[in-house]
């Protein structure tokens, strides 16, 4: 098994989104030749979340995918009522899930605050859902996440794991509940870094000059406590998909020519 880390740079955010969506659909086809079912972890945010999801939903390539064999999960969620516009789940339905024939039982959102009012219990419920779909062949306590999408904040946060926060990124639980997030809303649920790093492939999508510093620190090997994105490492591959503005501080020798 290889474990590669690379940076792919695109001229602008529109090209970035289109390229990630096309790469995802191509990789999904390859994975279906290898596995009966494929597990994908979605993220929130503008480019790597709604942008890529909308591009997937509107791509002519989507018709070649047997969506009944794809399971969707989330890396984190805002603990809000069902259907709230700020929930990553709501945004993913609007951008992608409502436009593809994926069975409802293949969609695995974090509990909303209507269904499970206590956030700690909501974390336990999602941990149990993960464990119920664990892949024993890989000795995992969670599903075999084939592709995990992550956005990266200007501060270097991924999912709802924030720098130097009292909820530690290296927590050994499957799911953490945060009642005091430094980014609103204050109540959030998140996969932990060990669970994220159990993914076969981690795809981080960054755009804009405000992400350049976080990308540079992540590539320089900063502490995951200080820059959570630096600690994200897929078992097979870790890819930073970025636009030219986000890549302004990346040395040329770190930029790959292809996936």
Automatic annotation (TrEMBL):
<dbReference type="GO" id="GO:0005975">
    <property type="term" value="P:carbohydrate metabolic process"/>
</dbReference>
<dbReference type="Pfam" id="PF01182">
    <property type="entry name" value="Glucosamine_iso"/>
</dbReference>
<keyword id="KW-0378">Hydrolase</keyword>
<protein>
    <recommendedName>
        <fullName>6-phosphogluconolactonase</fullName>
        <ecNumber>3.1.1.31</ecNumber>
    </recommendedName>
</protein>
<dbReference type="InterPro" id="IPR039104">
    <property type="entry name" value="6PGL"/>
</dbReference>
<comment type="function">
    <text>Hydrolysis of 6-phosphogluconolactone to 6-phosphogluconate.</text>
</comment>
<comment type="similarity">
    <text>Belongs to the glucosamine/galactosamine-6-phosphate isomerase family. 6-phosphogluconolactonase subfamily.</text>
</comment>
<dbReference type="InterPro" id="IPR037171">
    <property type="entry name" value="NagB/RpiA_transferase-like"/>
</dbReference>
<comment type="pathway">
    <text>Carbohydrate degradation; pentose phosphate pathway; D-ribulose 5-phosphate from D-glucose 6-phosphate (oxidative stage): step 2/3.</text>
</comment>
<dbReference type="GO" id="GO:0006098">
    <property type="term" value="P:pentose-phosphate shunt"/>
</dbReference>
<dbReference type="InterPro" id="IPR005900">
    <property type="entry name" value="6-phosphogluconolactonase_DevB"/>
</dbReference>
<feature type="domain" description="Glucosamine/galactosamine-6-phosphate isomerase">
    <location>
        <begin position="12"/>
        <end position="238"/>
    </location>
</feature>
<dbReference type="GO" id="GO:0017057">
    <property type="term" value="F:6-phosphogluconolactonase activity"/>
</dbReference>
<dbReference type="InterPro" id="IPR006148">
    <property type="entry name" value="Glc/Gal-6P_isomerase"/>
</dbReference>
